[in-house]
């Protein structure tokens, strides 16, 4: 093997779903190095209109497009969204290193499409192999076609030129799963939501608050009663009203959604800190900046709670169980909990 030949080629993407543009990049990766690592971004999310396929389904989808000989050369790693570039890049590097600890010459395969491609600049230690995308395909458009046509066979016909045949066949089988209909409904609700704000003079930026409440080794969660994220676990919270400041807004939302049996003065004394979460892609509803408020009641008992308002259920969940629930959280709420409670391994 020539000295300049990379030992491993890395391809990073969300692949929601895997389309012909992605296939072009994957072939470039296979031509560049004998071993290929596909990094499946946005893993461990709950299913949503933006992330309808879990990481295992995406790996199966990609593998189905490859002949057996090439399939054996490809490995997959799943990486969550940390909403922090440095932390995310470090996680990607660590996962690749686990698979190929002895590799010294690593190539990063990529295509500079738009601002979303800036992640390619986060790996200066890897050799960047830029590949032109022969197919100007947008996965967002494919998802819209899947979720908006009344007949799935019509959708699959429309996207026939956009995805490999194996992916089209995979999507046909996947559409029979129980998760498909709720995703269609969520997509429709989100489109209505965005349409309601489409006449605003400027793209709206929403301000919300969340309340992370800890007590006796537990954290207080709610189960969402409506779309988006119906049935998912979330931190109690909501939109800031016109006359409110942030801390009182977080306390109001907490009381409205959980009816937590503590005095407002006790809750105020339990307030530890607040952090802003402002990643542009953190919410399906659009640009939403939330201010999460962390309260530690420091009690040995769990105050009574009952779901109300937007919350179907309110429950105390042991902190030790939160990591196992990661794929059941709404938006970036697991990430918010991780920031205060340090749930993930790194």
From TrEMBL:
The lineage of its organism: Bacteria, Pseudomonadati, Pseudomonadota, Betaproteobacteria, Burkholderiales. Keywords: Hydrolase, Nucleotidyltransferase, Transferase. CDD domains: NUDIX_NadM_like. Pfam families: CTP_transf_like (PF01467), NUDIX (PF00293). It comes from Paraherbaspirillum soli. One of its GO terms (molecular function) is nucleotidyltransferase activity. Transmembrane segments: none annotated. This is Bifunctional nicotinamide-nucleotide adenylyltransferase/Nudix hydroxylase. The keyword RNA-binding does not apply. Its cofactor is Mg(2+). Residues 204-340 form the Nudix hydrolase domain. Signal peptide: none annotated. InterPro entries: Cyt_trans-like, NUDIX_hydrolase-like_dom_sf, NUDIX_hydrolase_CS, NUDIX_hydrolase_dom, Rossmann-like_a/b/a_fold.
């Amino acid at each position: 093997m020539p000295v300049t030949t990379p030992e491993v080629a890395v391809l990073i993407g969300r692949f929601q779903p895997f389309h012909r543009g992605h296939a072009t990049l994957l072939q470039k990766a296979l031509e560049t190095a004998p071993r290929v690592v596909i990094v499946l971004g946005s893993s461990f999310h709950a299913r949503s209109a933006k992330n309808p396929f879990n990481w295992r389904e995406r790996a199966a989808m990609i593998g189905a497009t490859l002949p057996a000989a090439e399939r054996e050369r490809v490995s997959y790693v799943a990486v969550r969204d940390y909403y922090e570039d440095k932390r995310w890049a470090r996680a990607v590097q660590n996962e690749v290193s686990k698979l190929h600890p002895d590799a010294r010459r690593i190539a990063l395969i990529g295509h500079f499409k738009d601002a979303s491609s800036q992640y390619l600049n986060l790996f200066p230690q890897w050799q960047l192999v830029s590949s032109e995308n022969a197919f100007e395909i947008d996965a967002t458009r494919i998802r819209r076609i899947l979720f908006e046509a009344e007949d799935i066979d019509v959708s699959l016909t429309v996207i026939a030129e956009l995805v490999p045949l194996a992916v089209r066949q995979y999507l046909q089988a996947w559409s029979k799963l129980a998760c498909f209909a709720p995703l269609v409904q969520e997509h429709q609700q989100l489109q209505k939501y965005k349409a309601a704000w489409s006449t605003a003079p400027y793209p709206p930026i929403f301000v919300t608050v969340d309340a992370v409440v800890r007590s006796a080794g537990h954290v207080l969660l709610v189960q969402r009663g409506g779309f988006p994220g119906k049935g998912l676990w979330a931190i109690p919270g909501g939109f800031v009203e016109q006359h409110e400041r942030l801390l009182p807004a977080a306390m109001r939302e907490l009381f409205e959604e959980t009816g937590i049996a503590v005095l407002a003065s006790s809750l105020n004394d339990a307030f530890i800190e607040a952090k802003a979460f402002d990643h542009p892609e953190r919410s399906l509803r659009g640009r939403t900046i939330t201010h999460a408020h962390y309260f530690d009641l420091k009690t040995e008992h769990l105050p009574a709670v009952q779901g109300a308002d937007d919350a179907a259920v309110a429950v105390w969940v042991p902190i030790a169980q939160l990591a196992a629930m990661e794929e059941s959280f709404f938006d970036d709420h697991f990430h918010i909990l991780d920031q205060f409670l340090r749930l993930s391994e790194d």
